[in-house]
Amino acid sequence: MAAAGGTVLDPANADNRYRIALDGPMRSRVTARAFTMIANWDLGGAQAKLTYGHRYFRSSDSYDSDNSSLAVVNVFDQRLQDRLDTLEVQLTATKGPADLLLGGFAYDNSIYASQSSTFGAGAGAFYNRLSGGVAPASAYPAGAGDTLQTFGQTGRGISIFTHDVIRLAPGLKATLGLRWLTEDKQGSGTLYTDGVADSFGMALPTRCKAPVPTPARAFCPANPIGGQFSDSHWTYALGLSYEPVAGTLLYFNHTTGYKAGGINAAKDARGPTTVNPALVNGTFAPETVRSFEIGAKTRAFDRRLTLAITAFLMDFDNFQFQTRDQTTLSTQVQTAATVRSKGVEVELSLNPAKGLTLGGNAAYILARYGTATADPTLAGQRLGNSPEWTLQPFVTYKHAVGTKWEGWLNLNARYVSDYIANVTLLAGNRQAPYALVNGSLTLEHRNGLSVAIFANNLFNQYYATLRTQAPLQANTFVGFPGEPRMFGVTVRKAF
């Protein structure tokens, strides 16, 4: 990138941690609206509730897709429209020792997306150097590329569910839940390369064929993407809780879960239309999970001590995650065969003196991919964005200030162990362990006026919420940092 004239910021220089080098349009516009209507009826021995929701979202974005100061690739007028209508009906009743719930849910959704990804003025020089001089700069003229991509999808679904709590004996309760769902999604898209609709047998641009090496074959014709996803599925929940003495609860839960499959709206990365004239099936499989949880909660010393301990195990099939192809610059949902997540969580709260509360929570979680994965580099590895250890202590002190004011002092911290800040698990994406400290001081008057001074990330700890390989640049990574130190004042008044 630097050899082609682009600016490369040295990450070793702390002044560069919150700087970016971009060239190209950076515009964004969002329109959103939503409303909800709720109706309740008392049917005597039962209660009914109906909820209707409508949401509409529209956005338009233009941005520098290569994340550099060199004009290689720009995205213009990336549009998204998303409409969602939902309807839910619930009927609840108490019959003897049972609290019963029966419900139904339906949704109707439509999505339309389009964008133009084209070469900038610096693309020719960049790809010429990337290919070792094999690819001529003239094969990447400004304005050429994926001149138009469109994708539309409609989806409808219905589910029927029940969730019941039955008192079996004093202090002993059972929970039974069951859900059936069915849904259908249909989607299709069109692709235009250099202003020409992609079609089987079309002539490939010079940049998309030998002797140009694969990394320099950018924005090549691809098979149109589309497909249909239809599925029906049952899930259930079983639970048992027991209160042996007042203030102590023991519980066990076993549940199954379901995340719907769908259709990838991104350009296919498997090759040009000369490979296969058929429409590419862009569907991905649904994700399912089986989970087990056992735990205990207790309060002691006149509720001055609260303790909760939970252990869990979750087994995922067809675990869904997003990947980004750095040559086609497309994002797609992929699935791993299996993932297992297991761990222990502990929560503690202690009130040793009037107004003083000490506490926190600690979690040890080990989440790993199974041995059979579509990407062999993931097999047996820890999931990205999944630290093994998370610790969150806090202290709060509350005290009267005069006769009309009350004050709160709050300090809290969050520590996480190292993790890979992306699903790709590349070594350059590793985030070292870090700790954040936050604090606030609040004064509240009995008339409802409150003033608070707060500080987040008090010691200005640098960390990345996401790291990913830079588009079109091997062994170069882009980091998305968390918020730096921030101070502020909030004023509230209750009327």
Automatic annotation (TrEMBL):
Gene3D superfamilies membership: TonB-dependent receptor, beta-barrel domain
Annotated membrane topology: Multi-pass membrane protein
Transmembrane keyword on record: yes
Entry's localization field: Cell outer membrane
Matching Pfam families: TonB_dep_Rec_b-barrel
Highest taxon of the lineage: Bacteria
Domain TonB-dependent receptor-like beta-barrel residues, every copy: 21-458
Keyword Lipid biosynthesis belongs to the record: no
Transmembrane segments: none
InterPro entries in the record: Beta-barrel_TonB, Beta-barrel_TonB_sf, TonB-dep_rcpt-like
Keywords: Cell outer membrane, Ion transport, Iron, Iron transport, Membrane, Plasmid, Receptor, TonB box, Transmembrane, Transmembrane beta strand, Transport
Protein name per Swiss-Prot or TrEMBL: TonB-dependent receptor
Organism in which the protein naturally occurs: Novosphingobium humi
